[in-house]
Structure prediction request, 1009 residues.
Amino acid sequence: MSLLRNLGSGLRSLFRKEQANRELDEELGEYLEMAADEKMKQGMSRQDALRAVRLEGGSLDGAKEIVRSGGWESVVDALWRDLLFAARMLRKSPGFTLVAVLTLALGIGGNTAVFSVMNTVLLRYLPLPNPQQLVFLRLPNATPDGVSSTGDGDRSFSYAVFEALRKEHAVFSDLMAYVPLAVGKVTVRIGEDPEEAEGDMVSGNFFSGLGVSFTRGRGFTLKDETAHTSVAVLSYSYWTTRFGRSPSAIGQTIYVKGVPFTVIGVTAQGFYGLEPASSTDFWIPLQNRPELNAWDEPPSLDTLYGTPKWWCIQLIGRLVPGVTESRALAKLDPIFQSAALIGLGTPDPKAKKNILAFSPTQGIQGLREGYEKPIQILLAMVGLVLAIACANVSLLLVARNSTRAREFSLRMALGAGRGRLLRQMLTESFLLVGGGAALGWMFAISGSQALAAWSGMEVPFVLDSRVLLFTLAISVACAIVFGLAPLRSAVSVPVGVTLKTSEATAYRDRRSSWSGKVVVASQMALCLMLLVGSGLLVHSLRNYQTLPLGLRVDGLLVFGTSPFSVHTDEEKEHFYQSLLARLRGVPGVESATLISHRLGSGWGWNSVWAIDGVEPQGPFSEIGMSANGVGPDFCHTLGIPILRGRDITDADSRTAPKVVLVNETFSKRFFATGDAVGHSVGERENRFTIVGVIGDSKYKRVNEKPKPTLYFPYAQHASIPNMQVELRTHDNPEALIPSAHAVLRDLDPNLPMQRPMTQRAQFDESYSQARLFARLSAFFAVIAVLLVATGLYGTLAYRVGRRTSEIGVRVALGAQRQQVLWMILRESFFVTGVAILAGVPLAIGGSRLMRSMLFGVQPGDMISFLLALFGVILVALAASIIPARRAAALDPIVALRYE
Amino acid sequence: MRDKSSDVVQGTLDMLVLKTLALEPMHGYGISVRIEQMSKGVFRPNAGSLFLAIQRLQRDGLIDGEWKATENNRRAKYYVLTKKGRQRLSSETREWGRQAAAIARILEAS
Prediction:
C-alpha cells in the first residue's frame, strides 16, 4: 500500500511538476506568513518579521530544495534532464550520431537475427504448457529388420508399440502419435481449385495431451481416433492464409486426396505442429482408409493402418511430473521390447537390438545435429562484427570527446565533479546504444525473415523474450564498454593545460593515441579472421556449384503428381502413359520422362538386390544399392550418357520382359571383369535383366559419393508409386509450367502440380545450408571491411586534422610532399603490419573450427588466406590514401594561419 | 541565532511530528511551534527538514493532508494522523522508551 502511495505521489510530482511545485510553494509561503504574524504580534514590523523568520529557519528556496530532493522522483528527474541534455548534445552533431547509431544497429541487429536462428533451431521449447515434460520417442538403432519403415527410421514406431506404450499412465500422462500424410504436401481441395497443404494424422489425445489451445472450435477426442471420424483442425497460419481468419471456416468441407473432412477447430497462433522445420497446415484423426495411407505410401499388406509391420507413426509423450527420463525408460523397455516383436515372429538372435530412447523437445528435432556447430560459428562471426562496430563507435567517441576536451575542462573548472561528467557520458552512450538497439531490433525482424527464407525453413524465427534479453545484454555491455573507454582520456586532462592551450598545440596524450592504434589494429585482425572464414565458405559454395552432376541439369523442369483417383497399377500405367504422350506434344518440350524419387531432394530408395540370383554378402555400406523407378527416355531426357546397351523405352511396359539399367559404379563393383549387360538383378519372379550401363549421376544430393544404382522401369514396380515428371526444353524451363499444368488439369481437374521447379533449383536445395552460411559470412565480411575502412579513415583523417599546423611547419621548413605522404602512410602500414601478425594465427585457429562446414577446401587454404590478406592491405591503403594526400597537399601558409 | 536550539536527534523528527498530530490535526507551522513549545525551546526544526519529514510520512501513509481555512482566515494544509500512523507512533514510542532507558542505564553505570 505505502509503496503504491509513494509511487503515486512521486509520479504526481514528476508529471504534474507545476502543480506539485505550486502546492509546496503555497504551503511554505503560508508557513512563512504564520511565522511572521507571530513575530508581528510581538511588535516587529512586517519587513523585520519576514527577515527574522528567514534568518531563523533558513531560506524558503533552500527548504524547497531539501523537500524536493528528498523523494525518489528527484533522481529520475535528474536522469531525465541528463537524457535531455545528452539528446541535445547528440542532435548538435547529427553526422556523428547517425554513423554511430547505424554502426551499432548493424552490429546489434546482425547478432540478434543470428541468435534468433540459434534460439529457434537449438534452444526454444515448443510453445506449449510445461514443454520440459514433453519428450520425443526415438530408436537410436533404427527400426527392426524386416519391417516396412519410412525415411525417418530412427523415430518411427508401429501402431502395436503405440497401443502398448500409451497404456503406461505411470510414465506418460499422455502419449501422442502423429504421422504425415505424405513426404511434404498432399492434395487438398477447398471449394473449386485443388492445391497442396501439409497435413498430419494424429491420435485423439494429440491436442489435449500437448496442451494446444484453440482459437476457434475444438480439437479431437479419443472417439475421433477410434471411429476415424472425418473431421479436421486447421493451423492458425493456414486459417489466416486460406480463410482470411473467417469464423465461417468452421463447418466447411476440406477434401484431402478427395476424401471430405469437416473443419471443427483452429489452433492458437504460434503452434506450427511437430514436423521439423516446416509448419503443418491441418490435422485429421488417424485414418484407416487405404487412400489416406500414412506417408502417401502405396497401400500394400505391410503398409496399412494397424499392421504391426508398418513402422510409420511418430510418438511424443508427456512425462508424469516427477518421473525422470531414465526411470521412465527403465519402466517402458520391457513393454516396448515385447510390443516391437508383434507380427515379426521369432527374432533373429543376431539381429541388432531394439533400443528405445528419448530426445528433448528443445529446438528443431533432426536439425540440432547438423546446425549446432555452424550456428555457433556464425554467431561467433557476427560477434566479431559487433566487436568491430563497438570499436568503431568507441573510436568515434574518443575523437569527439577530445574535441570536447575544452568543454569538459570548463565544466570541471566550474565545479562539475568527475562523477557528474561520468554520468553524463554514460547517459550519452546509453542513448546511442538505445537508438542502435531499437534500430537493430527492426533490422533483426526483417533479417530473421530473410534468414528463414534463405534457409528454406517454414518455421519463423521467433524474436521472443529470450532473444530480447540477449539483445539487451549485448547492448548494455556495449554501452558500458565505450561509455567508459573515452572517459579516461577526457577527464584525465589537467584542467589548466586544455584551457590554456590552443587547438594547434593541443595536448596530446601519448597513451591515448597509442590505444587508438591498438583498437584499429585489433579491428583489422578481427576483420582478417572474418575475411578468411568467409573466403573458405564461399570457396566451399563454389565447389558445390561446380560439382559435375553427371547429367545435363540445365533446361530441365520437374514437378510431382499424385493421381489419387486412379487406384490399380493398370490404371496408373495408363494415366502416366497418356500424361507423357500429351506432355511430349506441348510446344517447347523436347522430351519427357518420369522418375519415382525426385533427384536432389534428399530422398531415395536403398536396398540390396541379388545379382544373378545370389545375394551379395558384406556390410550394407559395401553392398547397399540405390534404386529409382524411371520412365521411357530416361537417359535421353536427363542427359545421362549411355555407356553400353540401351535406354528405357515405351516398350518396357508392365507386361513386357523385366529390364533394368545400372550405373557405372554398379557395373565396376559387381562385374569388375566383364560386361554387366545380360546379367540379372533380383530373385524369383522379380528378376530384371540388365539392358544398359549408364554414367554415374547425382541422386539424393550434389555432394554424395557415387553409389551402385539401379533404374527400374516404373511400370514394372510391384505397385506403381506417385511419379515425378521431368521435362527437357531448349528454353527457360519455368516457362513450361502453365502449359504443363493445363495438360495435367485436362487429364484430371482435381490434380495439382506438386512443387514445380527447375531441376537445377532442386539440386541447389541440397546445399542450401552451405549457401546460407556462405552468403551470410560474405555479408558479415563486407560489413566488417566497411567498418574497418571507415574506422581507419576516421582515425587517420582526425589525426591529420589535429596535426595540420605541425605539417604546415614541416612543409614550410622544407619537407618534401613525398615525405609528408610517407609519414602518414607509415602510421597506417605499421598498424596493418601489426594487425596481420596478430590476425594470421587467429585466422588459422578460427578456420580449424570450421572444418566441418567446409567442402572440398582445407582450413589452411592458401588462396583464401592470400585473398584475405590482400583485402586487408587494400582496405588499409584505400582508407589511408585520402588523408595522406590531403596532408601532403597542405598549403603551408594556410596551415600556419589555421587557428 | 540557532545556538539556543539543538538539532533533533537523528531519525526522531518523524516520531515527534506524529506525536504532535496525535493531539489534534495541525498545519506545518503549528507542528513546528508545538514541537518548540513542548520541548521548551530545545528543538526548533527548520522548515526544510520539517516539510521533508511531512512528505515522507505522507508517502508512507502515516498522515494525511487536507487544505482548510485557519482561525486567522488563512488557507493551510492540515495534517491528520491515519490509523496506521497511530499504530506506528505507539510502537515507536515503546521502542524509544526501551532504548532511552537502556542508554540511560549505560550512562549511569559507574
Notes: Chain A has 28 helices and 25 strands. The radius of gyration of chain A is 37 Å.
